[in-house]
């Protein structure tokens, strides 16, 4: 029951055959970090910085960003936080970032692309992340990365920011990208060669692989992250990444307990869900073996529709 589930929320999620999975929480505010701690989250797999500072008319200073990241870290002591750099464009306006008008914003200057011409906001943010990483376990994650060249550019901006610190980039800071563009999933090995981790953004990956705008009420049947085409790209990411690179998932798919089991079966080892769903996702993982999850994943990859995948989850 629900009571037993909550009692165990603060224990790790381990399958019946001993496979441990991290279940983290997505955060969009400092206040949410306390909620995540209450829910037993194993850290945060996604801090949406454009939401964290989205109410500001002016860009937060490096010091203000450090203060917010430290506050979150103090709510989740010892647990790894994944700070995503500014993800602007498409559905994410940012008051202090000037953005051109585009005919197709979701296919335009989104995420990291928006800072190529003027990287100052990005480099300031990376400086704040580097400074906090000296005291707390942190990971930095770049959104909407599509090409190897963009990975190289992002790493160069990180080095530029780290150059402002007396001792350079902290060794403990892990570096990764979101896999939310189909091209990035297909080229996961090349893109991840210099990284510690990747994290699948199933919301945007679903939108882009099905060419169906996220949140569109007109395309309901087409925007399901349980679609076999989405699952296939998740699988390709898990099998494709370079040696030793960890694969997480921080889209809404991770908040659905049945789907979370399927994701584990596909090879995802690190989930980040809404804070409220962490106990139920942990509970679902504890109820299955990794072998059963892998069997479920194999069957889901053979399904002809998202509806068929959901039918498999129900059984
Ligand atoms: C995603 O695209 O799945 C994701 C986690 O990022 P966001 O929803 O913020 O675009
Ligand atoms: Mg996204």
UniProtKB/TrEMBL annotation:
Localization (cell): Cytoplasm
Coiled-coil residue spans: none
Quaternary context: Homodimer. The dihydroxyacetone kinase complex is composed of a homodimer of DhaM, a homodimer of DhaK and the subunit DhaL.
Family designation: Belongs to the PEP-utilizing enzyme family.
Function: Component of the dihydroxyacetone kinase complex, which is responsible for the phosphoenolpyruvate (PEP)-dependent phosphorylation of dihydroxyacetone. DhaM serves as the phosphoryl donor. Is phosphorylated by phosphoenolpyruvate in an EI- and HPr-dependent reaction, and a phosphorelay system on histidine residues finally leads to phosphoryl transfer to DhaL and dihydroxyacetone. General (non sugar-specific) component of the phosphoenolpyruvate-dependent sugar phosphotransferase system (sugar PTS). This major carbohydrate active-transport system catalyzes the phosphorylation of incoming sugar substrates concomitantly with their translocation across the cell membrane. The phosphoryl group from phosphoenolpyruvate (PEP) is transferred to the phosphoryl carrier protein HPr by enzyme I. Phospho-HPr then transfers it to the PTS EIIA domain.
Name of the protein in its database record: Phosphocarrier protein HPr
Species assigned in the record: Ornithinimicrobium cryptoxanthini
Record lineage: Bacteria, Bacillati, Actinomycetota, Actinomycetes, Micrococcales
Portion of the full sequence shown: 527 to 841 of 841
